[in-house]
Amino acid sequence: MILAAGAVMSPHLLMRSGIGPAAELARHGIALLHDAPEVGENLADHLDITVMSCTRGREPIGLAPASCRAACGPPGALPPGAWAS
């Protein structure tokens, strides 16, 4: 199973479904499906910074321009390795 609901909502959904720390689930009256004490632990913010620069020809470089083009273009428009350009 792949659950991709973000750092906060993934543990929330798992725990609401009965997968998580047994004591925590019992405290909230949620039936235990699987005791997984690591669910909801070791969370950290994933800070991000976007840096964009222009070459002498005024062509922007970086991920942001490629992401913008991909968002406005057909599916799969983001070229492989765009993050490194």
TrEMBL record:
SUPFAM superfamilies from the UniProt entry: FAD/NAD(P)-binding domain (SSF51905)
Keywords: FAD, Flavoprotein
Residue stretches making up the Glucose-methanol-choline oxidoreductase N-terminal domain: 6-20
A Pfam family recorded for this sequence: GMC_oxred_N
An example molecular function term from Gene Ontology annotations: flavin adenine dinucleotide binding
Cofactor(s) this protein cannot do without: FAD
Family: Belongs to the GMC oxidoreductase family.
PANTHER family: CHOLINE DEHYDROGENASE, MITOCHONDRIAL, GLUCOSE-METHANOL-CHOLINE GMC OXIDOREDUCTASE
Name this protein carries in UniProt: Alcohol dehydrogenase
